[in-house]
Amino acid sequence: MSELQGHCMCGAVTVSMTPARPALGACHCDMCRRWTSSALMTIPAAPGYAALGPVKTYVSSDWAERAFCADCGSALWYRITAPGKMHGQVQMAAGLFDNAGGTKLGLELYIDRKPKGYAFAGEHRQMTEADVMAAFRPAAEEGKS
Predict the structure, then answer these.
(1) CA–CA separation, 39 vs 42, rounded Å?
(2) Which pTM value belongs to this model?
(3) Contact status, residue 92 vs residue 83, Cβ threshold 8 Å
(4) Residues 29, 15: contact at Cβ < 8 Å?
(5) pLDDT tier for residue 1 given thresholds of 50, 70 and 90
(6) Half-sphere exposure of 93 (CA within 13 A, CB side)
(7) Which residues contact 113 (CB under 8 A, 6 or more apart)?
(8) Phi, psi of 96 (to 5 degrees)
(9) Could you give the CA distance from residue 64 to residue 125 in angstroms, rounded to a whole number?
(10) Which of 18, 67, 106, 135 fits 46 for a cystine, CB–CB 3.0-4.6 Å?
């Protein structure tokens, strides 16, 4: 896929990235819904993305951080910080890019946490909270409840 260029709501942060896969992801976890007031829609970024401007990060869990524009508050990305095979993986906010970079929905995370008031159409993979934790939980957390 070709490189995407985008920006936050106020234009203070500009981003460039090449999608790792041509598919949108949607996360319905409690944190993403509180952060965006809906599902966080993302595009997986290949290594080498760039962001210029007043970027702030927030450590939102033991294994991830979220980035946002310090001026307007726009969501920028979600990044895995825990050691392991997922370390450094970035999910860029799809709203930064015109027409969400032309991608289609491929995955919904935390489908069992999604509010009943809306649903996304079409065929795509869905993962429950248990599925997500089994797939993405840091190795240090395995075996703990």
Answers:
(1) 9
(2) 0.88
(3) no
(4) no
(5) low
(6) 25
(7) 28, 29, 30, 33, 129
(8) -70, -20
(9) 22
(10) 18
